[in-house]
UniProtKB/TrEMBL annotation:
It is found in: Mitochondrion matrix. SMART domains: ETF. Heterodimer of an alpha and a beta subunit. Keywords: Electron transport, Mitochondrion, Transport. This is Probable electron transfer flavoprotein subunit beta. Residues 27-219 form the Electron transfer flavoprotein alpha/beta-subunit N-terminal domain. Its cofactor is AMP; FAD. It comes from Lachancea mirantina. Binds 1 AMP per subunit. PANTHER family: ELECTRON TRANSFER FLAVOPROTEIN BETA-SUBUNIT (PTHR21294), ELECTRON TRANSFER FLAVOPROTEIN SUBUNIT BETA (PTHR21294:SF8).
Amino acid sequence: MSKSLRILVPVKRVIDYAIKPRINKAGTGVEKTGVKFSMNPFDDIAVEEAVRLREKHKNLVESVHAVSIGPAKAQDILRTALAKGADTCTLIDAKEAELEPLAVAKVLKRVVEAQNANLVILGKQSIDDDCNNTGQMLAGLLNWPQATNAAKIELDAARGRVQVTREVDGGEEIVSAALPMVVTTDLRLNTPRYATLPNLMKAKKKPMEKLTLADFGDVDTQARLQTLKVEEPATRSAGVKVGSVDELVEKLKAAKAI
């Protein structure tokens, strides 16, 4: 394999995983005002894996390019991706539009073609909508092989193939496919590095291409789902502690659980 691996890493700006989401007063969605945002954790893992592949196969990886589709503020997470080792990035300003996975996949397909990427690594899902659809849809649109929920990624340079280990109910499953390919990442794949302050300063000098959805005018991004109402889940009653198995059985009988 010659020096020809071009990795694309889509990243999404989401409410920070440590924040407990709250429903807005209108009941139409999650409150976003005054809330901390950060890179989707699964995408952070994807960035780390792309950088590790480049570090391990320096003569094979041409570039690592990050892309985000979201509001203008998403450039913050792109700068973080650059600070962690991505070479270049693209911000596609979607204003405040909430694009569905199919629309995201359609736009990403165009970015893949523009960047001439032959390996896409992205998080298996985002922690805001938990759809777990984008990677699979992108692979379908590109007609590329895919490996989802990756717990380990190995590059077979001699054969131009990628081997992915996936955790399944019975243990592990190992799949292999030739490039080009789409891989989605699981939590066990790696532990992302921190973006240091010096690298964050250097990231400001790295190229960031800025586009808008209008630049993809012929791509259908129309929403197919409508959110009617968002509600908090019903409050559960507190549990109780029992002192013995006999007391537990009595409680279960009283609750008509047995």
